[in-house]
Amino acid sequence: MPLISFSTAKESVCNGTKGMTIRALRKRPFEVGDILYLWWKSSTNERKLLRGDFCCYEQVLKWWQIEELPSDKREYLAELDGFSDWKEMEAWFKNTYGENFHMGKWFQIVCWNFRTESYLRQIFSSKPLRCLD
What we know:
The protein has five helices and six strands. It has one domain: Roll (Archaeosine Trna-guanine Transglycosylase, Chain: A, domain 4). The protein has a three-stranded mixed beta sheet with strand order 1-3-4. The chain has a three-stranded antiparallel beta sheet with strand order 2-6-5. The radius of gyration is 14 Å and the shape is globular. The longest helix has 12 residues, at 86-97. By secondary structure, the chain is α+β, with helices and mostly antiparallel strands. The mean pLDDT is 91. The protein is 32% helix and 26% strand.
C-alpha cells in the first residue's frame, strides 16, 4: 500500500493545494497509477487519513539535478512542495536527511494533482515556465 505520511502541511494536503511531495527513494518506488494514501502522522496516536488519490506523475532524481535547475524553477518547485522559498526547502531537507543529504542520495517526486503535474513537467523541461490558468 503506497502510504505517504505528513507531519506538516496538513491543511494544504486536505484541501488539495499541496499536490506533490519529494521523498527519499524507497525500496519499492511509487509508480504512476498507484493509489496513494496520504496520512497525517501515520505512526502516532494522532494518525488520520487525509485523502486517497492517484499518483499522476513521478520522477526519480538526485538532489544535484534540482540544484542545477534555474533559480526561478527551483523557487517554483519549492512553492509547489509547500515551502515559502528554495532556502526553506533546502534547510528542511538538510534537517530531515542530514548534513550531506545531497551527496549521492536518490529522491522521488510524487504527484497526485494534475495541475501540479503540468507545472512539474514545465519545471523539468528546457522551456521557460508559463502559468497554466
